[in-house]
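Annex B. Sample input.
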Amino acid sequence: MPSVKTPNYKVEIDKDLAELNKYLHTQKASRIFVLVDENTKEHCLPAFHEHIDLGYELLEVTSGEENKTLASCVMLWDKLLELKCDRNSIMINLGGGVIGDMGGFVASTYMRGIRFIQMPTTLLSQVDASVGGKLGVDHKGYKNILGLFNDPALVWIHTPFLQTLPERELMSGFAEVIKHGLIQSKSLWETIKSKSTELNEEEWTKVIHNSVKIKNKIVTEDPKEGGLRKILNFGHTIGHALESYYLDTDKKLLHGEAIAKGMIVEAYLSFKTKRISIIEMEEINSLLESTYKLPTIQENEMDELLTIMAMDKKNKGGKKLFSLINGIGACDYEVEIENVLIREAMGF
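Annex B, continued. Sample output.
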């Protein structure tokens, strides 16, 4: 599979890991640090270790969105200081979206920035979080409220890592693939709609490659989310609110599950604002409802969800701004939606 070239780095997809070893030799780093969680340490690090003949220091954090915090960053900064990490070091973030977001944030702020490589190990991080330079951590219940834009030196996607994922994690990532089809590629949507997740290995690689190309095209045109890049937030205003609200409850959602529910609600908003037909809305609902176990929202939860939405980074001047699809394969952004219509879309 050919590389995807961004303005500042390459995304390598299913290139032999021995080539990554060659790349690291060319970088002449003073130290190499590899960030993992307990899952990637067990399931992914052995394949990495088998092909890398340079020495490295292992950094480990506990998995889970609830650990993507400043406290975890402080622990990592302290460890880098202890291990005498300098500005010629490289950090390799071997893991899912949490590892990539937080590891990139830590690397970008340590000594005003050291080089880092993203090695996404989940479908979600391969098709979404690893591309585009968004880095950050959660704070006081708000997702990615602290962060920055900074590009990695390299993104290395190794699709065999997907075989280590539980089905629920794989499906979480598939929600972002669905989103890419809805906002930018009618052909990708038609492929997904007809085959759902019944894809063979070669088809999975193509889907990942197409998703990476779609996201790269958008973020290349708008790297700092001043305009077009906001279409990537379809499903995310509602989805992030749900993910944050349920994070510390027994209804905790994976990112893709929250976004799937968000896309259903925001497809309704797209319909109500005359951007899609009722048939298109029902097709979206049918696929998402048959693919995901979606949460049932209670009316007494709405006020808190609206409060969380009010802090969404896309908002301006107190107005809640949404990205809504405008026909399958196209999307508008900065669409103002009032609370009364949000409540209606959520079933209240």
